[in-house]
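README, section 4: Worked example with a bound small molecule

Sections 1 through 3 covered apo chains. Here we extend the same pipeline to holo records, where the ligand is supplied as SMILES alongside the sequence. The molecule in this example is magnesium ion. Nothing else about the input changes; the structure line simply encodes the ligand pose together with the chain.
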Amino acid sequence: MAEAQGGRSLVVDAVTHRYPSGALAVENINLDIKGGEIIALLGPSGCGKTTLLRIIAGFIAQSQGRIIIGDDIVDALPPNRRAVGIVFQNYALFPHLSISENVAYGLAARGIDKATRQREAQRLLELVQLPAMAERLPRQLSGGQQQRVALARALAIKPSILLLDEPFAALDKNLRLDMQIEVKRLQRVSGITTLIVTHDQEEALSMADRVAVLSHGKLEQFGSPSDVYDRPQTLFVNTFVGSTNRMPGIVVSADRTAAKIRLDAGAEIIARPAAGALTEGGRVTVCIRPEHLQFVGDETGFAGVVGMSLPLGATVVHEVTTADGSGVKISQARIGETRALESGAAVRLAPLAPSLANAFPATL
Amino acid sequence: MGAAPASRDVISYGMGLAAPLALFFLLFFVAPLLQLFWLSLHNDTAGLHWGLGQYLHFLTDPFSLSVLGSTLLLGAEVTAVCLVLGFPIAWLYQRVGPKLQTIIILIVLLPLLTSVVVRTFAWIVILGRQGIINATLQSLGIIDTPIKLLYTQFGVVIALAQVQMPLMTLPLITALGRIDPNLDDASCSLGAGSWRTFFKIVLPLSLPGVIAGCTLTYAAAITAFITQSLVGGGQMLFMPMYLYQQASTLQNWPFAAAISIIFLLAVLAVVSVFTTLGRMSRGYGGV
Ligand SMILES: Nc1ncnc2c1ncn2[C@@H]1O[C@H](COP(=O)(O)OP(=O)(O)OP(=O)(O)O)[C@@H](O)[C@H]1O
Ligand SMILES: [Mg+2]
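The generated complex, written as structure tokens:
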């Protein structure tokens, strides 16, 4: 088939799932994932990420739609015949089996002889850099080490798809970074199509080739990290991914690529109509990220008064109160001559570029 | 700072609280046990000659040994029946909705809400010559003459199994409930079928519950005087009844005392085998 290094493609075709209790957990989700890609499923708690993952793994039969792995529709296959590896959030290592028995478990289920099993388990433990732990029990390992074992166990069956449910949520920040790099490395080596569930946007943006953003069971956007961050298609995506200032305004004039908007804060700016054409005179919400605002000296931007300044390491964030009383954050790189801003100083702000201000029709 | 003395206080306080119970045990358990032991060291009923005669008598008497043997065997059979029937119930309990769970727990606990005597008489009604089973089989034409169920080993095992079932099922339910349901899914996604998952994951992880259930059921089954004697009848003799006959009917107190001690040691031996197994399997339960 077309897939390069063994990773098979995965198609989620119009999948809807309603739990017997009546909760509509996922609604008409379409994902077309190429073999070997890393995809992040990103969304707030309760948006249906785990449900979608369990549908792909075969633990839940979806109410509607199809799952296609490679060229096969797998809806009729039970989880043990889908060749989908899954790493659970709590690792779900078998507590009574040694580390190497855990890793070899899937091979034993396939009837592979003991010597081969042990050799393979050892190879995988070396791959996840735990060769000396083979004889220990899971509870004798740290959280990060258990995570690696869970990964090795899932990889042992040479799955065509690897699913990870919030794999790093329980790890502290440094370890999380290590594991993210580790998983990315393993994924590159093995070329396995990988789906990572996360509610951590940084994780999604840094690890994935493409990010699927979910909200209330619906797919909001499916695109590259830079698409999702810089060209969000919905207000939800813009506010959920990264931080942003939401500024209300009214459309003065608009075409497909640019709209002139009069902000309630008191300036006219050019913005990008992010969710399709805007109607003249309609209310809009303009989203501008703190790092996409700049102080301007002339009369172009909107006026405000500096409130508090927070030095956050490499950047400084200033809180500015605008004329209509709403708060706006602006962040500046902390370079040598960054102006120290007094609280109460009058400033003017403007977006760095029109394409960095996204206008969405106001929903209220 | 103040943690160490404070915690010591707590401990001594705890000991003080346990004192009434300790006294109670000393007075009504340890003392009678010692008296029993002292009694068993007499070679004659009059209590004039000291010695190990009663023990020698028991251990060289084929009849006494056969009673001990059949009692221990009875315990094993009842335990096995309870385990085989109780495990699926406990397993089912963990996999059904909350409504069915309530029903299952009610069915499991129901036997505990009626007196053992009542339950045993119910079994006599069911197993008797004109009992429910025989009547049904006869009316269906499967048998001509009633089969003997009452006063048989089979009858005793079935009745005891029903009476002791909660002692097996409750620990099993607890043990199975402690197993992370993700382990099932993990096993399945690694390619294991349900049988492999059961034997490699569920069963080993439920071992602490199995052992606790077996210990309780076993100890309860071999000492169940009422059910054993009523369902077993005159022909089947087990240790509790044997003991009762020696003490009450024959007034042979020293021999009865020796029987008690031997029975106690036999039970302790079996129970300690179970607890050792339990300790070995404790690691399985995870954290
Ligand atoms: N077994 C279930 N029965 C009924 N409703 C469920 C069940 N599991 C989940 N839900 C509901 O479906 C929705 C999606 O749940 P899901 O577990 O997929 O969310 P999630 O995105 O994984 O959230 P989190 O980030 O908190 O793990 C939620 O509203 C939840 O209440
Ligand atoms: Mg989840």
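What to look for in the output: The longest helix of chain B spans residues 3-40. The pocket of adenosine-5'-triphosphate (ligand 1) is lined by residues A 19, 21, 23, 25, 43, 45-51, 199 (CB under 6 Å).

Section 5 describes how to batch many such records.
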